[in-house]
Amino acid sequence: MSTQRSMIPCATGWWCSGARMGAPAATTPGRCRSPSGRSSHTAIYDPARDRMVVFGGTGTDFDYFNDAWALSLAGSPTWSQLAPAGIPPRARRYHTAIYDPGRDRMVVFAGFGLGNSYYSEFGDAWALTLGGSPAWIELWHGGFRSDQLPQARYSHSAIYDPVRSRMVVFGGYRFEELHDIRYSDTWALTWDTVTAVDLSLASIRYESGRVRLRWYGSGMASLVASVERRAETSDWEPLASVTADGTGWLAYEDRAVTPGTRYGYRLAYRLGGDLLHTDEAWVEIPALQFALRGLTPNPSAGDPVVAFSLAGGEPATLEVFDLSGRRILSREVGSLGPGAHSFDLSSGVRLAAGVYHLRLIQGNRSATRRAVIIR
């Protein structure tokens, strides 16, 4: 016995199909008023009323919607437009929506649409109550500004966390003039405080032999957390305790880093009795390099300073030659140790105006540069 499935679309692109005992079956919504055709909308299942609730999206003429519709699923499917009280969210697409069973509502976050005068991404969160008389309630006023936290975005993903009763959001895009910025951060919207809780690192960078890290947690002005670090072949280890500065920012500077090593960082903190961790973020510590960068500036009219870097602590020599090949200066610089250094050539000798050759030697490595002195 073969089983076939047939599907019949309605004018707005809604499908319902099924097959049982080899008999094809298909149904379409009742021929009542229905939403206009659209894409990039969201939909949730309302288990209390056995229906699908649809919000927003964009039409074929790139018009944006902020209407809400319900499709009953029992018996003959029927569309009905919801008429919520309150001010609705801005029309949008590429947003996310989840069903909050504890409060019987749909929660909408972010998306892309028309801001004050131009199209932009949003960072706001809204709740549409579904029981009794539906109403829109703004939960988080991110508006359309891209500097809000969490930053405005679209094309992200979101799920409902039933254990902690919250909405968890990941990733997304932010539009720039010639390209999109891709996010890899994770946020949670909790219902008790109705604030966004940052679960990820805000910034990480390496400079001058140290790693600088910053986290942000809205509504976490006095948070105390532990900074944890690991290398690629080691386990997580606590480095230090950090406290928010009163505005939600936490900062840490790691000076104990080894060149050529890749480190991962995260925060460990407690929230509502739960031990939580931010997403780990990794940074590569550049390996020390043997390099002769030369005179800075070049040409030089003042005291001639040479910039160079050493890869190790073994003996090293910096030499200066004139155009005839005569060595006129030699200095031992290995005692400066590994890292970036500068050396003033005017210490001990005054170089006349002219062209010179610099040479740096350490072990079996050497580098040369041309230098010009003007007076």
Automatic annotation (TrEMBL):
InterPro entries: Gal_Oxase/kelch_b-propeller, Kelch-typ_b-propeller, Secre_tail. Coiled coil: none annotated. Gene3D superfamilies: Kelch-type beta propeller (2.120.10.80). This is T9SS type A sorting domain-containing protein. It comes from Eiseniibacteriota bacterium.
